[in-house]
Amino acid sequence: MRNGNSRFILFVFFICLIIPPALEAYIGPGAGFAFLSSFLILFLTFLAALLSLFAWPIRLILRLIKGKKAFRFALARRVIVLGLDGFDPELAEKFMAQGFLPNLSELRKKGSYFRLKTTTPAISPVAWSSFMTGCEPSKHNIFDFLSRDPRTYLPTLSSARILPSKRRLRFGKKQIPFGRPIIQGFRKSLPFWKILGDHGIPGTILRVPITFPPEKFNGHLLAGMCTPDLKGSQGTFSFYTSDPSKIYEKESGVTIPVEIKNKTISTYISGPENEAIGQEVRIPLRIFLKNEKEALVEVSGQKILLREGVFSPWINLTFPLGFGIKVKAIARFYLSSLKPYFNLYVTPLNIDPEKPALPISHPFYYSIYLSKLIGPYITLGEANDTWALNEGALSERAFLELTYLNHEEWEKMLFNALKKRRQGVIVCVFETTDSIQHMFWRYLEKDHPALLKGPAELSSMVVQQLYQRMDDLIGKVMTKLKSRDFLLVMSDHGFKSFRRGVNLNSWLYLEGYLKLKDGAQESSAWFKNVDWEKTKAYALGLGGLYLNMQGREAKGIVSPGEEAKKLKKEIKEKLLALKDEETGEKPILNVYDRDEIYSGPYRENAPDLIVGYNRGYRVSWDSVTGKVNRKIIVDNEKAWSGDHCLDPSAVPGIIFTNFPISSKEPSIMDIAPTILELFGLKIPTYMDGRSLLSTESKLESKRKISFSPRKSGEKFRKNISDK
Question: What's the rounded Cα separation, in Å, for the pair 576 and 634?
Fold first, then answer.
């Protein structure tokens, strides 16, 4: 990457000259806005690029000297990690046996393949944090997607928080936040690429979960899962409809009713909140119905022709905030129907990577570079809009198409990194595998409750084609391998069916551990009717159960020490004895006491108990959002029909390598120390993982490792065409 760095600096200098630095802003719930921050960052980026232009010959010489020293004891020239979120070992083994995955089969034959032990709990942000740090959860402080505020009992995002700037401008009675928002990242410990960078070994890190806000290191990074949209949420789509039957509140989207007058619709796009005026910013959206299959959209000074059933390209949206200030976003439009009713889906408002209102990459200009290289691309952490399919805003085929459009953008980023990064580490995580399995697992079971609810639009071939496509990707990457290139293909966890949901809060209520206010028979979302002064325990998130502890929760009643210990033991025993009366199965395999499985400095932030579900079960949708009623176990009828929030023993991930590894029971925590050893670095003593390198692996690095990609079997392609 030595010559690539100098070209990159020159390129950034050039784009800083041709891009007028606009006054940008970020606004989100509780975030206020920071309209001068992006301008200052872009201006400073321009100065940095200018200085770099004159300093790069000296820096190049120093980098050459440092680079030779950094790689002096390295076994690897490059280490390439392909993360396939949720890639399941049982399906992989089945498809390999059937000849559908020839490239993975060759990796297994000439290198290694094992099931990969995941974290407790088996949740993506937890597992990927352990992947990058080599630590168990209580050392990196991520235990779920959601945490809770013990003062309010309400959920918060576990990974990061965006707070308004403390500096403010006064305009009469109004106060406008001025300067950068305060971005707090809660993931602790050091990712392995930061350790490598500190020793002079650079990296390119693409869309690894829990990398927002981006941290400084020697290399380039584009943030992944948990990066917000422009509204500050984890993805809020908009759905415009004239169909009365579709006008209802969406859990993760906004429904906007429309009326057609003279073949014209006048409506708006809901933008971020402007704290100065205390309401969201809206921009006009006009839609002209041209014929039965086409409509013309006017928005932000643009005219875009939409065709029924076809996704638009990324559309630039500008939200004015007054005083000449504006924020930028990008979104795709999808016109699903014009007759008998008008239905239009708009993706969440992605932060514009070309003019980012928040830092979504390191360096700040890296997202700009990528946008100039491949065009606009998705920046939202939860990229694939699963809830739009769950709630009927997108059809199955449309969701699948949108997911693969996102995937193609990530492939372009990956192959650019493979071309430019000649030494060091490259990591790219694809969430395609996770999203598609979540939404289409029901097709693998003829009697899944979600499949019985409505007519089948697709088939089980969706999942087979997904694994086929990932195998083809791996084959393409294998053609780029050169001498002393080490390839790891891995997943953070596997997948299983989600047929029945367990409402832990309803169970706690019926068992007497959770109390409702006088006269209440149930509670709506976020514990609205819970009587905290009488409640001993509550559940929140995808696997956590908390005690209402004195001195910790605002209205805690459980005494720390023996009372808490006894209560945890009692709840654990009862949950393990729980039986699904309809199926006769035990929905819960294990209940883990945090004090028994964690030993790190952030153990106190973990749930008191972590529930490990049996195959076919998961925490129910109502329980996740703090709803309480008298139904403990219910059918899951949503399109979201597969999951991994089960007991870790039921959902291991996978690891394929082009070199032998020493352990037959590798853990996701072993990958970070393995990569450090490949580059000749000492493994930190705080890491819980161990290097997987065998003596044979070290000898392997002395010769070229290469494979020829194989195309998928004709039998598989014939099956697809027959469908």
Answer: 18
